[in-house]
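Entry 14. Ran structure prediction on the chain below.
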Amino acid sequence: MNADGGLLLIAILASSLVPGLLIFFLPEERHGLRTLLNLSAAGIKLVLVGVLLLGVQRGETFEFGLTLLPGVDFVLAADALSLLFATLSSILWFVTTLYAIGYLEGSPRRSRFFGFFSLCVSATVGIALSGNLITFVIFYEILTLATWPLVVHRGTPEALRAGRLYLAYTVTSGLVLLAAVIALNLLAGSQPFASGGYLLHLPDELHGLLQIIGLALIAGFAVKAALIPLHSWLPQAMVAPAPVSALLHAVAVVKAGAFGIVRTLNDVFGLELAADLRLTDVLLVLAALTIVYGSIQALRAQDIKQRLAFSTVSQVSYIALGVAMAGPLGVIGGLVHLVHQGLTKITLFFCAGNFAETLGIHEIREMRGVGRRMPLTMAAFTVGGLGMIGLPPLAGFISKWYLGLGALEGEAAWILGILAMSSLLNAAYFLPPIIAGWMAEPEVTRPPAHKTRFESHWMLLFPTLFVAVLALLPGLLAGLELSPLGWVELIVERGYVLVPGGDMDNGTGVSP
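Output, structure tokens:
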């Protein structure tokens, strides 16, 4: 145990929680102080998570525990898996904060927005660092309460309707999760997450009950992960401002749901027991159906953000698909896609926000010729779109490559068909706007909404270009130890090894 490990975990949570609470009380005109609090908090969190990352890589232990009630423990802990999510969230929060400051310049209710924005990230990092299922659900429900005001921020009838739908789905799923966690706590006690699970000691007579509890946990997390048929809230939530959309899709909500599924299968049940209870089979079918359904709906959508939303419905399911394969290669593909999808999707949503704020472009058909007016933003959109399709050497290709290897490893050729169909559909809904954006004549010549020396406000443009570069690097630098792929291989080496002796080489060249 690192002597200061618990303090570091608390400091990471406090680095966004305390400034967020202070921001609530700032008058609207204190723009400079609010910006200072936002950016300094994001920077401090990034540094602290970096310290934690290096410690975990060296094998140090970080843990904090507190008894809330008899048999109910609040536990924070850091392992390689938690750092995958925490690092992604911290990096993208910093960039999204800068983008949101520029996007909301001159807008009303900014103190309220950034207060809840900070609480949202505190809850997300809390989810990443949760050491047991009870702590996870506490932060998971705080995330629901912190993101609802962001969804309804504009206060329009559409926003309020989307907010009601969001609450209906997430609160109901939260009650299901709470019931499942209470039942599990009665059966096994308040246990910390453990690679391989902590339920194997329970007698076979309880397997029927465990199966029901496992399905309830998957269903509860499937709402935020947007697995069909529990996905409808996500496209409706696109009425929120672009920074919120980016937060929902790339950083916080859908990733929290997917991360909950990962923790349930590996660290509560264990992949071996989950497979015996057929939980992985159920998840495989749900994920495969969601991948195809989301892609078809994205192809039909004509609003840019709606198309990106349905793309998220499809793409996040790759995470569930990979983990449900229950083999090392599939797990690598699923976990690394948590990072790859986040970097690529935030790039696309930033681009959508730039198009809307600069030229008033909201529909796919309006993107004709936009590359001539906004070449840098269109270049970033191209990187994001091609990454989602999975063209080499972009990060999306690496995710799909390992998912394909996992399908071969598990002798599940039908999964290869799902991946091929998804890639074709991805190409069908991303390539036309990319080609039209660069090659077609613009239908309407719009003057910029704001005068600027760049093609967009610099606080919108620079974060977009930065995340576009980030979306490129995981594919180009995949061989490095601290690349997302290298880190996921470390995760699998430490906790997801399912073959005798921990040898993952299996003739595929994968050997962490």
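The two ends are 25 Å apart (CA to CA). Will compare against last week's run tomorrow.
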